Amino acid sequence: MTQQGRKFDGGKLEYGLLPPKALEATVAVLTFGAQKYERGNWKFVPESKRRYFDAMQRHIWAWKYGGKNGKNGGKNGKNGKNGKYGGKNGGKNGKNGGKTLS
């Protein structure tokens, strides 16, 4: 048989381009959340859009001020010794305990 098979996949997403480690890292984050809070818990948080936006902003600003996220993202309201976002010391990151502002 000399016939060549046909597959109409032109213009479709090429999932083979996704590095396996990228998918593994995503699944690790989702697994951490499911084990800590329960699978799908985020769907039932009251006022979730506002609260998740606020949390995201706290993490972004902590990072912007030079901090690094702690092992589990941190969770306390004390935002460093030099003011709300930690001033020179980057909040609850780096020199001040290794946690983000959440």
Protein traits:
mainly alpha; single chain; 102 residues; disordered C terminus; 34% helix
Q: Measure the end-to-end span.
A: 65 Å
Indicate the proportion of strand residues.
Answer: under 5%
Question: What's the shape?
Answer: elongated
Structural class: mainly alpha
Helix fraction by DSSP (H/I, runs of at least 4): 25-40%
| Count of DSSP-assigned helices | 2
Write a short abstract of this structure:
The protein has 102 residues and is mainly α. The chain has 2 helices and no strands.
Notes on the structure:
With 102 residues, the chain is mostly helical. The protein is built from two helices and no strands. The longest helix is centred in the N-terminal third of the chain and has 18 residues, at 20-37. It is elongated and about 65 Å long. The N and C termini lie far apart (65 Å).
Write the layout of secondary structure elements.
Blueprint: H1 20-37, H2 48-64
